[in-house]
Every structure is written in C-alpha cells, then in structure tokens.
Amino acid sequence: MTPAEEIKKVMHDVCEMYGIKREELVSPKRSPYLVRARAEAYNRLRNFGLTSVHIGKLFGREHSSVLHSYKKFGNTVNV
Description:
The protein is mainly alpha-helical. It is built from 5 helices and no strands. α4 crosses α5 (63-73). The chain is globular and about 30 Å long. It starts with a helix and ends in a 6-residue tail after the last helix.
C-alpha cells in the first residue's frame, strides 16, 4: 500500500469509527466530537511517521494545532 493510500485508509477508518464524513474531519469546525476524531486521525498518522507539518497540511491546519492536539489527547484516543 502506498503512503497516499495509507493516509486515505486512516481517514476513512476514523470517519467510519466516529460516524462522520471526510469533509467534516478536515473542516474548520471545532465541535468536540470532530476534535476527538481529528485527534484520533493525527495520532494514527503520526504512528506512520508523518510529521506534524505534513499532518497539518492534510487537514488544512498549522503544525502547532497538531502538536497541541497530541499534547492534549496523547495516545488516549487510540482504540
């Protein structure tokens, strides 16, 4: 599986798990359930070795937002 396919699969899996659409996952909305879903996606993508800069670009956010999420949630969102 290529890295691009792995990224799509992670996003798809997180969306299914939280019952949301991909558009919601990458939207600027800050609803608690979306924040939690994004944190899950960030953690899974980080486990693939992606940098916070790259993850931020995938979600239309700054790398500092990804770092803040990781500090706030850590690995607690992983299933």
